[in-house]
Amino acid sequence: MNVFKNKIFWIITGVVVFLVLLVTVLLIVFTSGGGNSVSEDAFADTNAEELYELNMDCIKVKVGKLVHDTEDNSFEVTVTMPDYTKLYKEVYKSPNPEAELMQRLKSGNYEKKTIKSMAEAEYKNGKEVANTEKLVKFLLECELIEATNAVWREKY
Fold first, then answer.
1. What H or E segment, with its residue span, contains residue 82?
2. Is pTM, for the whole model, over 0.90?
3. Comparing 43-47, 119-123, 133-137, which segment has the lowest mean pLDDT?
4. Which among 97, 77, 69, 83 has a CA at the least distance from the CA of 155?
5. How far does CA 34 lie from the centroid of its chain?
6. What angle do CA 126, 131, 132 make, to 5 degrees?
């Protein structure tokens, strides 16, 4: 469990999540339209940071009770996020997948998925609290990879 306490590991994980989001958007743009060409101007509107923030705004975390049964104390956590697999499959079929994805995330027009997990406990200001940021980044990365793979499986 020492690797989870390594700050460099989590910085790299954050960068990977950001890159996965960027690659996902680019993948959707390049593979959309069943033969329609995509001009280089399509990237002028791409704002990976805005997409990352939209994704983070769509994710809701509910921290449950502290569990002392583990080697390191952990909190029960329920994470609610968009069902990215369904969402990606739906927006992939639109003429402008990136714009559709942004619009759907902004409006909340998507199915939600609930994941129950455990978050590592840490001390802040003398209190034991759940480190949900690490958990959310990890779950988001996993969900985005699965959604991208699902789109590829459907296409090929």
1. strand 74-82
2. no
3. 43-47
4. 97
5. 26
6. 140
